[in-house]
Fold this protein.
Amino acid sequence: MICPKCRDVASFHEHRDKTFSTLLGDVRVEIRHYYQCDHCHHGHFPGDAALGLAGRRISLGAEAVVTLAGTLTNFGQAARKILPKMAGIRFRESTVERTAEANGERLGKLWEQGHTMASARDWHWNRDARLQQVAYISIDATGVGQQGLGGTKVE
Ligand SMILES: [Zn+2]
């Protein structure tokens, strides 16, 4: 293979195993092809890279859920209560803390660089009975009070 670091030739060295934590539980991959660059000596697992697992122990899906759980409460409760109930997975408190804080830091840097969660676009605002622009927003997704046509009450 071609070394992603220096573009020289990386030669196959051996098979190595690794266990990844996923939303389906721990998954042990026993045959991972390990290549080492003949020039810069960096090691590479092209299969891990193809699966989005390069340099990771936790899958992207599990990481997103662990991060979300870490934002809901303290890291201990997230590890002991939230993750088992939310996804049937278990992680140590320190893993939840490390994962959530790393993603929070990454998100903070993206915001500092001007990135947003979605692209900006013009919004078509509705008008109420007094022709004022209005928006209806749900925070908990359980109910949104709205005004009907002509300002009528919506049941
Ligand atoms: Zn290299």
Residues 3, 5-6, 8, 37, 39-40, 42 surround zinc ion (CB under 6 Å). Residues 93-112 form the longest helix (20 residues).
